[in-house]
Design a protein that fits this description.
Shape of chain A: globular
Order of helices and strands of chain A: HHHHHHHHHHHHHH
CATH architecture of the largest domain in chain B: 3-Layer(aba) Sandwich
Distance between the termini of chain B: 31 Å
CATH architecture of chain A: Orthogonal Bundle
CATH superfamily of chain A: ABC transporter involved in vitamin B12 uptake, BtuC
Mean pLDDT of chain B: 86
Low-confidence stretches of chain A: none
CATH topology of chain A: ABC transporter involved in vitamin B12 uptake, BtuC
Structural class of chain A: mainly alpha
Number of domains of chain A: 1
Largest interface: A-B, 34 and 39 residues
Structural class of chain B: alpha/beta
Number of helices of chain B: 11
Helix content of chain B: 25-40%
Low-confidence stretches of chain B: 275-296
Number of domains of chain B: 2
Mean pLDDT of chain A: 85
Strand content of chain B: 15-25%
CATH superfamily of the largest domain in chain B: P-loop containing nucleotide triphosphate hydrolases
Oligomer: heterodimer
Order of helices and strands of chain B: EEEHEEHEHHHEHEHEEHHEEHH
Strand content of chain A: under 5%
Helix content of chain A: over 70%
Number of strands of chain B: 12
CATH class of the largest domain in chain B: Alpha Beta
Distance between the termini of chain A: 38 Å
CATH topology of the largest domain in chain B: Rossmann fold
Strand order of the largest sheet of chain B: 6-7-8-3-9-10
Chain lengths: 336, 296
Amino acid sequence: MALNRSSIIKRITIVSLILFIILIIAILAALAIGSTSTGIMPVYHALFDHEDANAMTSAIILHLRLPRALLAALVGAALSLGGLVFQAILRNPLAEPYILGISGGSAIGAIIGILMGLSRFPGVSLLSFTGSLIILFLIVIISSGHSILKKDSLLLAGVMVNSFCSAVIMFLISMTQDSRLHNIMFWLMGDLSLADVNQAGILAAILLPCFILIFLLSNSMNILLLGKEMALTMGISVKVITLTLLITTSLMVSATVSNCGLVGFVGLVIPHILRLSLGSDHRVLVPACILGGGAYMVICDLMARTLPEQGEMPAGVITAMIGAPIFIFLLKKSKI
Amino acid sequence: MTSSIKITNLDYYYDDYHVLKNIDFTVQQGDFFIIIGPNGSGKTTLIKIIAGIFKQQKGDIFVFDKNLQSYSRKKLAQKIALVPQMISADFPFTVKELVLMGRSPYLGLLGLDKQEDLEIAKQALFFTGVEEFIDRRMDHLSGGERQRILIAKAICQETEIILLDEPTAALDLAHQIRIMDLMEELQQKKNVTIIMISHDLNLAAMYGNRLLLLDNGKIASIGSPADVLTFKNLEKTYRCKLLIDKNPVGQYPRVNLVPKKFINSSSFLRNEDELTSPTMHHSFRPSLPDLKVKKF
């Protein structure tokens, strides 16, 4: 029998390697394709062979496309991992930061920060984190008590919280008169076009420790899925681990929202596809979601900036157009 | 004999509701201990307190003479395993993944299993007779198969005590007897202490060496099946008409339900006698043809 100490590690390694290659291909495609120049050779020149490089093209690739692709990869990774964690803790395959209103809560915080004229980091990010924690707290209160396992009541609570958040966001926007309006609107719909290297760096510095922490708790997540009481009798400190996971996830989600607005459904689509193909072991799913979600978001952003004939659209539009039908399909398929 | 579980003066309140009142008993190592009682008598609460899921407001629980509160979660999971009635199948694990989770109290944070852990898991699956399902998904199995896999998980946890909350409640007759035989084998071959909740008084009579009858949060009776399953005890706690005779299989007390239409049928049930001298009911037999059942 193949399963021994090295076999689960082997499985994690193989899955991660394949998805890492896909992520690299997606990033290369994002570097190669664009309105000014298309092709893999300029990318090669810009990255490795500076002598043959066209200065203008190299600048576009290195200073516009590269930070944007990296930012997209980080955002996709954080959001799909966030979806995976919420699905495990709430034991609901339809849970997702955007659907539950967690993203909306952090958007409110972020907009208040922007309107107050705070800098993106740390002011806006902190308010955004606070917003997401408040909504998280609200969702946990609503869904605990008696009906945490009832899919419909949890989702309904999420939809209502999300509508409330949208209303507050609209209210805040309608109070805004000046030129920031267009920026806020565009940012809200999930916009990656303003990416720069610093921004990607700060986001990476916040997200990477979160990724590691969640991976370390991945086996506990497996056991939590058997139910809270079973987990307790199998040596898991349910409260500590649940709380750690929820707060870490809120931090990840609010960090991405304050950077690039509301990008919905990534946390639904990627964990679902990966679970279908890889099974339920979270020790495999956590790295797979990070790499696969990253690749997915890079491709969605690439589509967002190449599909329109002129200009571009927010990446959140693409993810919602793909994700919402999948959500409906999943809801229809689930027996409850 | 050493005690596996010792409970002293235990009280448990749920909000203002006094669920368990002054519970005091001891379970010896290797007992097949069955908790019976009407709905709402506190059986599940009691087993959850022993499992460390709920915490009592008053009294102490000793697991192998050491206070339960002084165990870490992981150490307690190495002493006591729980078999629930069922688990959710929203996230379908394979049988192998699930049974190997039983090893997690012995493994590190990531639960990386060694070859020997897999051997233990396979032996547990073999013991419960479901080794051929090792690569199947939990949600593709029947209720009886799933229950045996949950028992295999508990065996894989290698604890000296296994708690079961009505493991046979949703199963057909063949699966019920299989699960009970399995638990008896475990108790006798491996000297595991079995603490089980059961609604089936006849199964409890046949398998338990000690029974605990709970009534409204209090111990109504504790002892051997013959001591506990008496007309007097059961009529008082269950508040319905019963007829207790000897089970032709193995001479255990047998509890029969009496439907309303037969309660006044005097040829069938002599009510007055029962109430005045309850001890008679051990020998009391209905005037029905004597059923001879082959011993097997």
